[in-house]
UniProtKB/TrEMBL annotation:
Range of residues in the leader sequence: 1-22
One GO cellular component, as annotated: proton-transporting V-type ATPase complex
PANTHER family according to UniProt: V-TYPE PROTON ATPASE SUBUNIT S1, VACUOLAR ATP SYNTHASE SUBUNIT S1
The keyword Signal appears for this protein: yes
Example GO biological process: regulation of cellular pH
Name the record gives this protein: Uncharacterized protein
Alphabetical UniProt keywords: Signal
Amino acid sequence: MGLQRNLVLVVSCAFLLSVCAAEFVPVYIWGTRSAGEPVPALHKISQSSFKDEVANKLRANSRIIVFAEHSLSPEDFGQRDRSGDLAFPNLSKLRKTSKVTYLSYVQNPVKAIQLASDDVAEISIERLRENFEIPDSKIVIIDLNDADENERRFDMLKRHDDFIASLYSSVLEKNENVLALYTAHHASWIGSGEVHSRKVRSLERAASITTNQYMDN
């Protein structure tokens, strides 16, 4: 009986870790060639499936440039300021000039991208601003990790939107086929976080109860 309870504890803890590790983040994809087939708005894509998709896209594009926020949510794309302006005016315009695909929920997209090739470079936006030299790798991940605590999130996203547009234009001048992705390391929507927290707390309580029962015996 004790062994069975111990096994339940191990399984519960493993599931808890998997829940904590899995985050679904939006991915905005555009390029000179097809960016992918449309998918249902609420469709969730696993890390493994997305890794394979990125690897396939690398065969058709000379380079993949990834712009990675610290956190992002589908709700961010609909944000407007008091004047009615969007946080991503440049990304919105891409629909008229590039082939665009939007994926609402991708599991750990940055991690999937890192595993999609053995030639991946990662650089911060601050370091890139210093010399504007983009690493000569097949996949380049640019971390947009320059948030200012005194800056509104909307203003930060809009500033990053300008940076992305400028850098992408620069890369296109030197590369014929470029695929770009805008995503994040983590999900930022508080609603998802609340649901996630409730699941974690529930699993923690279950694991705690099982542990106490096992220790009592």
